[in-house]
Amino acid sequence: MSHSFKVVIPARYASSRLPGKPLLELAGKPMLQHVHERAVESGADEVVIATDDERIEAAVRAFPAEVCMTSAEHTSGTERIAEVVAARGWDDGTIIVNLQGDEPLMPGRLIKQVASDLATHKAAAITTLAFPLELSINETDPNIVKVVLDREGYALYFSRAAIPWHRDPQETGSGMHGVNPVLHHVGLYAYRAGFLKQFSELEQAPLEVFEKLEQLRALWHGFRIHVGITTEVPGPGVDTAEDLERVERLMSVI
């Protein structure tokens, strides 16, 4: 069943590790243009890039693509998206996918999946995705966010630590399958417009500050996050110059 949804791509020019990141060139195009193309491939009925920088605005209009100028005071992409929702006057029930502006290899199928997951889970304020960590690199890497779920697929906790901890592998076996497999969280989110308005007014949670994971704010305040499981591993995002080179190499063989 097909569900209607929109994609908003928050994009900042300033980046401590890679200044001007959204406009850096990959395979002859600005990285942000590749991200926009992935969003269009998802089948979204509208794709908007949200920024506070005139250089990004000019580049986006040259793609061309829709752009919404937002405040420079936002501390997160979610807050930026909330401003887009207010500016566009989207209905509270509108499903919006938050696609980060540094994910040029995010498959359109996953963007569609996270939106469909929200449409079918009415109790969820947010939906996101994860895949078995066995398909990943290193469960102790703090840059890999892990998530543990309840029996209905709702998140119990997200962490940069290795969770759940396999205390007795000799007794229970080396695999972490079954009720609580070790899962690698995918930083892709879907929300309803009405929830975004609420979220932007919530106080930061101590756990969010400690782990530097914004989704913990929602859990702290009692909102539910459903996690869809995928076996499709998205390509790497871009945080550093080394990441940019890696993605460039991957694109050359696609």
Radius of gyration: 18 Å
Distance between the termini: 29 Å
Helix count from the secondary structure assignment: 9
Structural category: alpha/beta
CATH superfamily: Spore Coat Polysaccharide Biosynthesis Protein SpsA, Chain A
CATH architecture: Alpha-Beta Complex
Morphology call: globular
**Main sheet specs:** 9 strands, mixed
State the low-pLDDT regions, or none: 176-180
Overall strand count: 11
Q: What is the ordering of alpha helices and beta strands?
A: EEEHEHEHEHEEEHEHHHEH
Could you write a compact summary of the structure shown?
The protein is 31% helix and 22% strand. The protein is α/β, with parallel strands linked by helices. About 2% of the residues have low confidence.
Account of the protein in words:
- The chain is an alpha/beta fold and 254 residues long.
- It has a single domain, classed as Spore Coat Polysaccharide Biosynthesis Protein SpsA, Chain A (Alpha-Beta Complex), CATH 3.90.550.10.
- A hairpin with a 5-residue loop joins strand 8 and strand 9.
- Helix 3 packs across helix 6.
- It is globular and about 60 Å long.
- The chain starts with 5 loop residues before the first strand and ends with a helix.
- About 2% of the residues have low confidence.
Layout of helices and strands, plus pairs?
Blueprint (H helix, E strand, L loop, with lengths): L5 E6 L13 E2 L2 E2 H11 L4 E6 L2 H8 L4 E4 L7 H12 L6 E4 L9 H13 L5 E7 L13 E4 L5 E5 L9 H4 L10 E10 H7 L6 H6 L3 H6 L4 E5 L11 H13 L1
Parallel strand pairs: 1-4, 1-6, 4-5, 7-11
Antiparallel strand pairs: 2-3, 6-10, 7-10, 8-9, 8-10
Helix pairs in contact: 3-6
